[in-house]
Amino acid sequence: MEANLAAVGRIARAHGNHGQVIVDPDTDFPRERFRPGATFIVEQDGGFVSVQVVDVRFQHDRPILTLSGVHTIDAAEQLAGRELMVPMGELTPLPAGTFYRHELVGCGVETADGKRVGVVSSVEGSMAISRLVVESANGEVLVPLVRDICRVIDPAGKRIVIDPPDGLLDLNR
Predict the structure, then answer these.
(1) Mean pLDDT computed over 64-92
(2) Which of 44, 111, 118, 152 is most buried, taking the most CB atoms under 10 A from its CB?
């Protein structure tokens, strides 16, 4: 089931004594995504459960959610670190030239001259400043996700072409 789901946030920690949670959003649309009535899927005890947002407020651009069925600090603490996921079909279409993180995971990375670097295992950082984590034969390589370096991004073709500055590919050796 997880293959058909996309993470849109991660529960950072419990907040207050009444079961609220603070979320680190992983979306460019946090106010649209985290609203009363929104439903998320959470992995729990080896399975998946649905949770619904009862109430929300924002503090420093982070949503603080009251979730259905979560009424105590102990229950909220049990959710810390868990991803809030939605079915892929519920994702907002993005403008041309922008991508969801999950679309980049699994893409092969090569240099402009055709040298294979590795495969994207994850995307780290904030929405404003992100980097590709590339698993290579020589270990992990961190590649800033910026146009000056990532020249071709083709998620459908599972391919990213980079033009790295001198020394970038050697930083983590």
Answers:
(1) 92
(2) 118
